[in-house]
Amino acid sequence: MAEVRTDAPRTTEAATVTRHRVSDFEQWRIATTLQLGHYLRTNRFYGLLGFVTLVSSLTLAFQVAAGIPAIQIEQLYRSSEYLSNNLAYTGLWIILAAAFFGGDALGVDFSTSAGYYMLVLPIRRSVLLAGRYTAATLVTFAIVGVNYALDLAGGVYFFGGSTIPWGLLLESLGIAALFALAALSVAFCVSAFVRSPSAGVLVTVLALYVGFTILQAVLELAGIEPWFSFPYAGTAMASVMDTDFVHQQTIPLGAQQYYTIWVANVSEGIAIMAAYLAVFLPLSIFLYQRQESTG
Amino acid sequence: MASFEVSGLSKSFATGPAVLHDLSFRFDGAGAVGCLGPNGAGKTTLLKLLVGLLHPSQGHAYLNGIDPMADRKRALWDVGALIETPEPYPTMNVHGALDLVGRARGLASDDVDREIDRCHELLDLPPLGHRIGWLSKGQRQRVSLGAALMGDPAVLLLDEPTSGLDPAERVVVRHLLNGLKRDHLVLMSSHQLVEVTEVCDHLIFLHRGKVLLNDRVDRVAGRIRSRQVDVEFTGSVSPEAMAGLRTVATEVVAVSPRRWRISFDGSDEARVQLLRLCQALGPVVQFTSTTLVLEEAYLELIPPAAGDA
Prior knowledge:
By secondary structure, chain A is mainly α.
């Protein structure tokens, strides 16, 4: 009688599969899609998006409740002024988004076992980083876009569509994009050497916003222009549309006491952002390539 | 030709002693190499160095002749690796996790699906729509093993591939590895000595970062001196008579009234003395050293205190 085996091994042979060389560009696209899909399934994306939408919507709602005459006459007599004023907090949203999406983008490979899955694939780490950076940039733009869209809606409601300074608005968007790229480069750099994901997010916020804001306030008290401050550079997003833009303003505090505040002009803001981008993005690539999976 | 090689490979960390010391070996072609050693011997570190997850302090590692430190993409192109217990993004599903690997390895989309189906069948993977975050450790391990196999890479580097699997799953994986080694080059680390004897053709014993033994599995046991002999007499021998062997033997155990198993220190002198003493008790028809199983060889090679280092 023929022997009947019940534990016969299943075939291990792969069907004829053809593998073609994958370009770095194609792998960048794969990494971007993967990371974007990941972000779009996380609570942090929807949480931040909801928060920005809520705050921007509430701002608009209060302005609508105050009425068109109040907005037009009392403080913001031109649509460009209105838009500029409302965009004052865009820098904060971008820094938060950069921290949320960049602060743990690389550290996750070394603090969790995710790296044992991703880093053994035949993909250069610089390509992986580029894909993640692109995806983080796109979700940051989505959040910034909501902020701009609601701001624009307010501008149209109060002043009419024909008054909107589209060219300046686009310029502001361009500066916001550069600011996001620079903020993400710092966040990725932090992420490349801070292994804990939550610590990476926290350090990015502390460094980019809290630390610089405190330092900036102290320096301004001493009458020093905070030309190196990251949030200071971000003020260019709003100042580009401010028709009454003043770079330096001295406010008297009392007898012979003055407090000087600075707002970055467009070229200065762009230069600062570009400098951050030029330093921190290559540094994050270098650190990521050197990082070891010791866990 | 598929190959992996380490040359003068050492690794030490900023804090703590060196983990690997001057390792050199090369394997090519097809077959399975087992990497054994107690905890802390450096098995996982060796695999991490091979795939470029760690930087060598000295020396080089090569995969298919390419140093992963010099060109990670080319070095890992034809390599499937399972290191520790990988965790793809918990938000991904099983299909997405395998699809990613297939596309990164240059499979056309039709081939990706065929490969996913093959891995799914081979490893009895969980439903493809299940999220990674929902899976048990064993299921994740099987998905990761499937990922290592996607695209049929020529070299497989597997760090304790059956870790976290239940006995039935381990059998499946052993069958799988036995099939794979026919036309792949497999390096696997394991604590499961049975697994290594069943799967591997060649062994590397690591201890405190050094290679204690690098040999074929069937020759390893032969290189270790047996500490036991089986003796068979033509007739029954009483326990009292056998007690006389205690001057040389450390233990004498009756297998049957005619057959006894004698433990001793393994020296040739003691073996000769035991034979003489046995012959004095009656005609001896058989006096043979028992074959060492791998576990005994393992304990023989590694000092007892180091077993849990």
